[in-house]
Input
Amino acid sequence: MTSEFHEQDLTGARFEGVTLSGATFRKVSLDGASMRSVDFSGARIRGALLKDTRLRGVELVDVEISGELGRVVVNGVDIAPLVDAELNRRMPDRARMRPADADGFREAWAILERLWSETVARARTFPEESLHREVDDEWSFIQTLRHLNFATGAWAGRMILGDLSPWHPLDLPWDDAPQRSGFPWDRAARPSLDEVLAIRGERQAMVRRVMESLTDEQLASEVSRPEPGWPQAEGFPFRNCLRIILNEEWEHRLYAERDLTVMEKEGPGQAPVPEDKD
Output
């Protein structure tokens, strides 16, 4: 028998001698939880916040971690700077994604446009159906481009340029984004690569125009968008809007390249029609 718990407050609950093999946790708060003698073998954890987490007497064997690291101490050694340095060694352009002035931002954006043109050219060598395949339950290649269209619309179109509703119906927010009026939300859409690239070309040109006119004074300023919608913020640093765009573009290209490599090794397979996720 399968037990299901929806919208329940189990604060302070105690689980002892309980088997949760194969259980699914979504939008669950475990802050402040205490776990002892817990078996996480084969567990898949995605989109989790592990801030101020303490793991003692654990065995981490054959573990893969992908995410943002900041002061991660393993056996007394903060590995975050070591990982950061190694990633920069492997990918010299990565260090340029943290620019300090306007010229640095222009250089970073030019690098991203070049790298993405190479990734798109690689993707075109696959059957189009493969570009709808969700590898390991991640976004497909086309969904990734749709999300980047959303991100540039949000942080350049809305926050910097003041277009309060810059969305295209094919834009794709993050999976757990709030569903708002006028917000695009069609995860199951299956547009062609060229359809999505046409929108992407417009969004890239928009960011390019922002970069071309960018000054150091602008970078030091703040922007406010108090109007209903997303993002909605007061006094948000201008430079952070652009840093978010750079980070989204850099990280999602790595994800896309990773999944294209998987498909090369495994073969394209079939691309199932994705279910809507709320």
Observations:
- Residues 270-278 have pLDDT under 50 and may be disordered.
- The first helix runs from residue 80 to 90.
- Residues 120 and 197 are 9 Å apart (CA to CA).
- The longest strand covers residues 233-237.
